[in-house]
Specification:
Length: 407
C-alpha cells in the first residue's frame, strides 16, 4: 500500500464532502433526468452541451468549447497553478429506442442514454458544484472535461486531446467513472493496470464469380470462401496470440445477397478485433490481412480488406489507482469497494490513459429489489438514482485527495 500511504485520510473532509453531496443530490437527479429525456447522438450533442454550459455558468464557472460539442471548465482553488487533476464525463447517447416507462423517458424516438452517459455528465456537474463551493478549502485546479462522441469512432477523447485538452493547464492525473449495472448502487470497483481492450473494426469483401447454384463449376463460390475465411480467422488468436494477452476476434455480420439458387459475386464480412497489447495488435492486423488475401486467392477469388483502427487499450496507472481506491474506501467504507476483472469492452477514455496517468473506475447502479438489472446498450437500461449521491461525492473527494497527495 505504498501509493495509498501518500494520501492522508481526513475524516472531517469526508464528512464535509458527504454533507454537500447529500445536499446536492436532488438537483443532480433532476439534471440527470433532463439529460436522459433529451438524448443526442455522438457528435450531435449541441443542446446537451448548451445545457451543461448553462449549469456550469450557474455555478460561476467559465466553460470553453472544444471539439465543437465538447466543453472544458476549471475549478480553481487557492494557488491554482500548484497542481491540476482532470475529471472526465461523456455526453452522447445511443441509437436505441427506450422501452422504460418512466417520467424521464427519452423524448426522441430511437435515441436513448443506454450507456449511462447522462449519469456521467450529471455526476461531473454535481462534483463540480461541490468543488466550486469548496474552492477556498483546497490548493490546485480541477479541470472538468465534458467530451462528445465516446460511442463513435474516432472517439471524442481523441479530438479533445488533439485540440489541447491535456494542456493549459496540463493535468498530472485524470479520473473517469462509468456506470456498472452488475454492481449494486453504493458500491464502486477498481482494477489497476490493463483494464479494457482496444477495439478495431474489420471489413472484408470477398470477391469471386457469381452464377447459378446448380452449376458450381462455372462459379467462384464467394459464400464458400467466406465460410472458410471466418473459420480460418480463429487461428489468429488461438495459434498466434500469447495466452498471456487477452484477445478476441469476432465476426458479427455476413452479407451475401444471393438466393437459394444464386451464388453472389461478392460477400461482405464485418467483425471486431480486441486486445490489450499494442505490439500484438499491430502484428494481428498484418496476420488478418495476409490470411484473408492468401485464403481467398487459394480458392480462386480475391478480397478487399479494411481494418479501421479504433480506441487503444485502457490502462489504469497502478499508483493513481491505488490512491483513488484508498480514497474510495475512506469515503464509502472498504466493504463497498470491490476488485474488477479484465473487460474486453472498449472505451475512448483509453486515449487519455495513453497520455497521462489515469484511473477509470466503475460506479454501481443496480437495484434488484426495484428490478433495475438491465445491462448497458439495452432498451431497458436504467439506474438506481441513489448511485448519484455516491458518484458526485466520491468524484469530488477523490479529486481533493489527489490534489493533496504527496508527489
Amino acid at each position: 500500500m505504498l501509493a495509498a500511504n501518500r494520501i492522508s485520510i481526513m475524516p472531517e473532509l469526508v464528512a464535509r464532502v458527504k454533507q454537500l453531496a447529500h445536499t446536492y443530490t436532488p438537483d443532480t437527479v433532476q439534471v440527470r433526468r433532463h439529460i436522459h429525456a433529451n438524448p443526442e447522438l455522438s457528435f450531435e450533442e449541441h443542446n446537451t452541451a448548451a445545457y451543461v454550459r448553462s449549469v456550469l455558468e450557474g455555478y460561476g464557472l467559465e466553460p470553453v468549447a472544444m471539439a465543437e460539442t465538447g466543453l472544458v471548465a476549471l475549478v480553481q482553488g487557492r494557488n491554482p497553478e500548484k497542481r491540476t487533476i482532470a475529471l472526465r464525463a461523456d455526453l452522447d447517447a445511443l441509437p436505441i429506442m427506450e422501452a422504460n416507462e418512466v417520467a424521464y423517458k427519452s423524448k426522441k424516438d430511437g435515441v436513448m442514454h443506454a450507456c449511462g452517459h447522462d449519469v456521467h455528465t450529471a455526476s461531473l456537474l454535481g462534483a463540480a458544484r461541490i468543488l466550486q463551493e469548496m474552492r477556498g478549502e483546497f490548493e490546485g485546479t480541477v479541470k472538468l472535461i465534458f467530451q462528445p462522441g465516446e460511442e463513435k469512432f474516432p472517439g471524442g477523447a481523441s479530438l479533445m486531446i488533439r485540440e489541447g485538452v491535456l494542456q493549459n493547464p496540463a493535468p498530472a492525473q485524470i479520473l473517469g467513472q462509468h456506470v456498472f449495472p452488475m454492481l449494486p448502487a453504493g458500491k464502486v470497483g477498481f482494477r489497476a493496470g490493463m483494464y479494457m481492450a482496444s477495439a478495431d473494426e474489420i471489413y472484408i469483401t470477398v470477391k469471386g464469380k457469381g452464377g447459378h447454384a446448380a452449376m458450381p463449376e462455372q462459379n467462384v463460390d464467394t459464400v464458400l470462401i467466406a465460410s472458410h475465411l471466418i473459420v480460418a480467422m480463429q487461428q489468429i488468436v488461438s495459434r498466434h496470440a500469447s495466452p498471456k494477452v487477452p484477445s478476441v476476434l469476432s465476426f458479427g455480420k455476413v452479407e451475401a445477397k444471393g438466393a437459394t439458387n444464386v451464388i453472389p459475386n461478392e460477400v461482405k464480412i464485418e467483425g471486431t478485433f480486441r486486445t490489450m497489447n499494442e505490439v500484438w495488435r499491430e502484428e494481428a492486423h498484418k496476420r488478418i490481412k495476409k490470411l484473408a488475401e492468401g485464403l481467398c486467392e487459394s480458392m480462386g477469388g480475391s478480397c478487399e480488406i479494411d481494418i479501421k483502427k479504433g480506441y487503444p487499450f485502457l490502462k489504469n496507472d497502478p499508483s493513481l489507482t491505488e490512491r483513488t481506491r484508498a480514497a474510495a474506501e475512506a469515503y464509502l467504507g472498504a466493504e463497498n469497494v470491490v476488485d474488477l476483472d479484465l473487460w474486453m469492452g472498449a472505451e475512448d477514455f483509453a486515449y487519455y490513459s495513453q497520455e497521462v496517468p489515469a484511473c477509470f473506475y466503475r460506479l454501481g447502479t443496480r437495484n434488484e429489489a426495484r428490478g433495475i438489472v438491465s445491462s448497458v446498450h439495452t432498451p431497458t437500461f436504467d439506474i438506481d438514482e441513489a448511485a448519484l449521491e455516491t458518484s458526485i461525492g466520491l468524484m469530488a473527494y477523490a479529486a481533493l485527495q489527489e490534489l493533496a497527495a504527496k508527489a
